[in-house]
Write a structure and sequence with these properties.
single chain, about 425 residues, mainly alpha, two-stranded antiparallel ribbon, 4 strands, globular, disordered C terminus, binds 2-acetamido-2-deoxy-beta-D-glucopyranose, 6hp_glycosidase-like_sf, hydrolase, Six-hairpin glycosidase
Length: about 425
């Protein structure tokens, strides 16, 4: 009797879990968001972020979240061609002057051009006929490691003209350094993986506050000590990409300790941030300043990290917050596929003007959809079992996830 009851309980909780899933954003919405992103992404960090978002959403087998993504195939199938990602790599490398080590010349930011480096490494790996990608990637690495200014502790500056650390750097440079190392293999590859981890650790030493949130900018001629939502998103999402790269590299077992640290450092950001979530699911631009304005960009990025971390750690306790965030992001995408209520990505502290959109915000919607898709697949396959609380979240819009619906699905299963 007991085993039967407990397996019935398991079936019930799995059904409850599956019934709590929503469908994600529709293909039509995602298509508009994607084409708007491609139309307006122009700055180095926007292009790097766009390339990553397109990889995760459209070519997930090639993203570091897939256990068999490293290394990629030497030749891409017609159906898995990563064409939009490789286009960003190709146009960047062909525009790069030969006297620039960085992928984008005279950018001012150290890390931002490197964000395109992951796509350039993918282009190199899958197109042996063109050596310009390999040299562009290795020059970019050389610039980061050997030319850019550093703090006394060794943290690579985010600015080229002074030593200044920005939370944004974590999404821009360490994922490239780690991917480079994972592809390179051998002792040099291992040492790059370690470098990616150490840079994160050095940044965290400077930017993290006691509650786990990160300040935006420290050192140099000016500082931004606020807990910027997008900055915390850059830090958490960048750490997550490095974590996945370490875990899916051939030397994952040597990095177990670093991986555990990264998972904890990501978790402390998201678990603190969601404590400040507004009633309708949004985060404020300065997470813990109630006088700040709502920001859908940072909300989307942190929600994407939250879905990914639930799969990574099999801990769904923050999913109700992510589901609420998902709902408000859906409500913030207008009928033409533009994410509204974003922070102006150039000022950091004012809302975007009514006439302008945030390229990074558009990319964060795609990252959110990709993360949610992986989460939903993990729940559907029984790999992750959500706490029953997620059922009551606002993620599914038509409100038919009540007990009678669960029972109805139960009966369907019993009939099989
Ligand atoms: C990872 O990619 C491989 C192809 O390289 C694919 O067969 C597999 O289904 C992917 N795994 C997941 C979890 O998507
Ligand atoms: C790349 O793949 C997409 C989706 O599978 C397909 O629509 C497109 O035609 C492909 N492009 C090329 C150049 O093969
Ligand atoms: C470029 O790709 C080739 C495989 O096609 C690989 O052997 C080489 O190490 C790659 N270079 C870099 C810098 O990743
Ligand atoms: C490893 O790095 C060193 C120093 O940069 C270099 O001289 C050596 O050729 C590299 N080894 C391999 C196998 O790439
Ligand atoms: C689940 O719901 C209960 C009651 O509403 C609440 O106290 C608890 O914090 C919720 N847990 C999560 C993980 O949201
Ligand atoms: C969410 O609530 C905030 C107030 O906390 C409000 O300013 C914002 O417009 C709301 N967002 C949406 C999409 O309704
Ligand atoms: C995740 O947690 C659930 C519930 O605690 C458990 O049944 C399941 O086996 C776990 N999955 C993994 C992959 O650890």
């Amino acid at each position: 009797m007991a085993p039967l009851l407990s397996s019935l309980g398991l079936i019930l909780s799995s059904l409850e879990a599956i019934s709590s899933l929503h469908a994600g954003f529709s293909n039509a919405v995602i298509e508009q968001v994607r084409s708007n992103l491609i139309a307006i992404a122009s700055q180095s960090w926007e292009l790097g972020t766009a390339a990553e978002a397109l990889t995760e959403l459209d070519w997930p087998a090639l993203s570091v979240f897939n256990a068999s993504a490293i290394p990629p195939p030497y030749e891409l199938d017609a159906a898995n061609n990563a064409s939009d990602v490789l286009k960003i790599a190709t146009s960047t490398v062909s525009a790069k002057p030969s006297d620039s080590l960085a992928l984008v010349a005279n950018d001012g930011a150290v890390g931002d051009p490197a964000s395109i480096g992951v796509a350039v490494l993918l282009a190199n790996w899958t197109d042996s006929s063109d050596i310009s990608y390999a040299s562009a990637a290795s020059e970019q690495l050389d610039y980061l490691l050997n030319v850019a200014p550093r703090t006394d502790s060794g943290a690579i500056s985010q600015r080229s003209d002074q030593v200044q650390l920005w939370a944004d750097f974590i999404y821009m440079a360490p994922p490239f350094i780690a991917y480079y190392g994972a592809l390179q293999g051998g002792d040099n590859g291992t040492s790059l993986l370690q470098t990616a981890f150490e840079q994160i650790s050095l940044y965290r030493d400077v930017l993290r506050d006691d509650d786990g949130l990160w300040r935006h900018v420290a050192l140099g001629s000016w500082e931004d000590s606020t807990h910027w939502a997008t900055g915390n998103g850059w830090a958490a999402a960048g750490m997550l990409r490095v974590l996945e790269t370490l875990d899916h590299s051939s030397v994952a077992s040597d990095f177990a300790e670093q991986s555990a640290s990264l998972a904890q450092w990501i978790q402390e950001i998201i678990s603190t941030a969601w404590q400040y979530q507004a009633e309708n699911g949004t985060l404020l631009n300065t997470i813990d300043d109630p006088t700040s304005f709502p920001d859908s960009s940072g909300t989307a990025l942190l929600a994407s990290v939250t879905y990914r971390m639930a799969v990574y750690s099999n801990d769904t306790s923050l999913i109700p917050y992510a589901d609420k965030a998902f709902q408000v992001i859906g409500d913030s995408i207008d009928e033409n596929g533009w994410l509204r209520n974003t922070v102006d990505p150039e000022t950091f502290d004012t809302p975007s003007a009514a006439s302008s959109a945030s390229p990074e915000g558009q990319a964060f919607v795609l990252l959110l959809q990709a993360a949610y898709t992986e989460y939903a697949q993990s729940v559907a396959s029984g790999q992750v079992i959500p706490t029953s609380n997620s059922t009551s979240s606002s993620g599914s819009s038509n409100g038919d996830d009540d007990d009678s619906n669960i029972l109805r699905r139960c009966r369907l299963v019993h009939r099989k």
